[in-house]
Amino acid sequence: MAEEGKDSAVTLRINPSRVLPLRLLQFFLVFLALGLGVSVFSMYTTKYYKVQNVPPITQSVTAESVTKPCFEEPSSFEGWIRPPTKLLHTMNDSELFWRASLVPRIKHYPFKRIPKIAFMFLTKGPLPLAPLWERFFKGHEGLYSIYIHSMPSYEADFPPSSVFYRRQIPSQIAEWGRMSMCDAERRLLANALLDVSNEWFILLSESCIPLSNFSIVYRYISRSRYSFLGSFDEPGPYGRGRYNRNMAPEVNLTDWRKGPQWFEINRVLAVKIVEDATYYPKFEEFCRPACYVDEHYFQTMLSIETPHLLANRSLTYVDWSRGGAHPATFGKADISKDFFNKIAESKTCLYNNQPTTLCFLFARKFAPSALEPLLELASEVLGF
């Protein structure tokens, strides 16, 4: 009996130690089962709500895409060569210029590329002569693209049928004679460079008109060996007199050039303007009114860098004969056949080093009142 009691005492002392691991094992199994249950439930509810909430997610992405066009890495070759579907984007100038300065190093295009002319309108707001331009562009889709830089506060109301519909780029205030004007021109060039098919770039204003039909303009520009930017050395106070010696050594007095603001350049020169970080700081700091930077910056820089690519003349006719700081403005009373004959006969020039009388493809400045007679004469005089 004594031995039996002893064994019972021993048993009582051993049992608690055996119960504890058993309870831990039970607790672990219950925890594991609960965990698996929660995981399965979570997966089910996530899948369920993902399916149920597709419409709101789609609406959110769609709304964002209206203001933020897609610039992520393309997933196919076509994605690299396709122009942006929308011109409005959220890139700042530094990002835009960097993006636009990316150029292919192999000159042979591995796809069928139809070179286009980029018509870049630098405006304050409306395009009062838009109906005339609509007629000019009609029937030539695929050979041109349009870009508009206006005051940031201006909202265009072109109908969907218009060639100008949604062709505004992100813009900033541009002041006459100041670097912000050249910034606007560089912004236009950079946005146009995002379309790999744009080969030639024409700067125009809201008061410009075409003097010939589209076919003549395209043929003239596409067959030229040179770009059309006026650049000349003027020794007087309005030329060399505006030079600041602090611009040396990047720009010396003998390099200083002047010319019209309105130009037509090819893709090579457009990239040079957009990527420039050598001359820009000098002009920004030392060419301020009465040094009007839009008359000197591109003209001087390209004369230094690529003089062999310039025709040293503009394709845009402007009448300075009336005197003053601004050229003559033509209204309704000025428009006639004789008026256009006078422009056509006003100058002889060189085209691919050969003499020609076809020197101007565009003209300015035309008031809104000139639109009606221009439309009446367009088919007979302008050819469209």
Question: Keywords for this structure?
Answer:
alpha/beta, Spore Coat Polysaccharide Biosynthesis Protein SpsA, Chain A, single chain, three-stranded mixed sheet, disordered N terminus, 384 residues, four-stranded mixed sheet
Write the layout of secondary structure elements.
Blueprint: H1 2-52, H2 54-67, H3 77-81, H4 93-100, E1 116-122, H5 130-137, E2 144-149, H6 179-193, E3 198-205, E4 209-210, H7 214-222, E5 264-266, H8 267-275, H9 280-286, H10 297-305, E6 316-317, H11 337-344, E7 349-351, E8 354-356, E9 362-363, H12 371-382
Parallel strand pairs: 1-2, 1-3, 6-9
Antiparallel strand pairs: 3-5, 4-9, 7-8
Helix pairs in contact: 4-6, 6-8
Structure description:
This protein is an alpha/beta fold and 384 residues long. It has a domain at 113-314: Alpha-Beta Complex (Spore Coat Polysaccharide Biosynthesis Protein SpsA, Chain A), CATH 3.90.550. It contains twelve helices and nine strands. It has a four-stranded mixed sheet with strand order 2-1-3-5. The chain has a three-stranded mixed sheet with strand order 4-9-6. Helix 6 crosses helix 8. The longest helix has 51 residues, at 2-52.
Summary, kept brief:
The protein has 384 residues and is an alpha/beta fold. It has helices at 2-52, 54-67, 77-81, 93-100, 130-137, 179-193, 214-222, 267-275, 280-286, 297-305, 337-344, 371-382, and strands at residues 116-122, 144-149, 198-205, 209-210, 264-266, 316-317, 349-351, 354-356, 362-363. Strands 2-1-3-5 form a four-stranded mixed beta sheet. Strands 4-9-6 form a three-stranded mixed beta sheet. A two-stranded antiparallel ribbon has the order 7-8.
